[in-house]
Write a structure and sequence with these properties.
Elements lengths: L4 H27 L2 H13 L9 H4 L11 E8 L17 E7 L9 H15 L6 E7 L2 E6 L4 H10 L7 E9 L8 E9 L4 E9 L5 E3 L8 H12 L2 E3 L27 E2 L6 E2 L10
Length: 287
């Protein structure tokens, strides 16, 4: 059975219309911005709404939030900048968050953390100073050794000189003030690097406000000379044995230590018709 002439004409016309429509689609596609076309292609290939494969958590687990579980609470934070009473003009007046420390970790710590902890424990056992390490915390892919402050110089010496450790470089000491961490209000945090083994660890000691003394490590890590002076200047931590513990940022007769949480926020005097800018906790609230 043969096709009728009008049916052949209709099929030919439909084919021409389809070719013309495809040509228009191709032209319209080519006219779209390249960024838009590339994004649509990426979305179809990855099966996501953004066109980006979210592999970061798997490739960089240290970027993940810290694991939940047991924590050590050291107080509660309300608002921002310590403002109370007159209102907080920053907009954070209703913010309430707990101040917590991650809980001590249990063995195995994972990777080379176990090698460092094992070598350090072996040296401490040989010298009957096993209590020098109060706790070990592994958090966000980093390891911190909490050391009893009176044993700090001995532990630092071992970390530097032991062949299995070789933390030859201390990049600095930082002070931290936790007013609600009763009996441990002042923290000194040391950042150590092993250039031999390409490793980094943190050592932390604490001292109470009533006795803010920590042994100096300048004789072991000379680079800490000015770092300890700055920590003393800003936080009031006294490094016993430092060769010249004087202020390095503030004038010698400056009262107090500016980076402590109990230090006044202060204000700025303005020479304009006797006006001034009061400290944040005394400013007017605008909401």
């Amino acid at each position: 059975m043969t096709d009728k002439p009008d049916e052949k004409h209709d099929e030919k016309h439909a084919g021409e219309a389809k070719d013309e429509s495809d040509d228009k689609t191709d032209k319209n596609e080519a006219a779209r911005p390249a960024e838009e076309r590339n994004l649509e292609k990426a979305k179809s290939e990855t099966g996501t709404g953004t066109g980006v494969e979210q592999r970061a958590p798997e490739q960089s687990p240290e970027n993940l939030p810290g694991p939940t579980g047991e924590v050590h609470a050291v107080g509660e934070r309300r608002g921002m900048f310590g403002v109370t009473g007159t209102g907080d003009t920053s907009g954070y007046g209703g913010l309430v968050s707990a101040k917590v420390f991650p809980a001590p970790s249990q063995k195995p710590y994972g990777g080379w953390f176990d090698e460092v902890a094992g070598a350090l424990e072996a040296r401490l056992e040989a010298t009957e100073l096993t209590s020098a390490i109060e706790s070990v915390v592994v958090h966000r892919g980093e390891i911190t050794f909490h050391v009893r402050r009176e044993d700090l110089p001995f532990v630092a010496q071992m970390l530097r000189d032991d062949e299995a450790l070789r933390f030859e470089f201390c990049s600095g000491v930082s002070g931290v003030h936790y007013p609600d961490d009763t009996g441990r209000e002042l923290h000194a945090v040391y950042h150590l690097t092993s250039m031999t083994h390409n490793r980094r660890i943190r050592v932390e000691v604490t001292a109470p406000d009533s006795d803010p003394h920590v042994p100096s490590l300048v004789s072991i890590y000379p680079t800490l000379d000015w770092h300890e002076r700055e920590t003393y200047d800003m936080f009031g931590l006294i490094f016993d044995g430092h060769p010249a513990l004087t202020r390095v940022l503030m004038p010698d007769d400056w009262p107090g230590h500016p980076q402590r949480k109990d230090y006044p926020l202060g204000g700025i005097p303005v020479e304009y018709k006797g006006g001034s800018i009061p400290p944040p906790d005394q400013r007017r609230s605008y909401n």
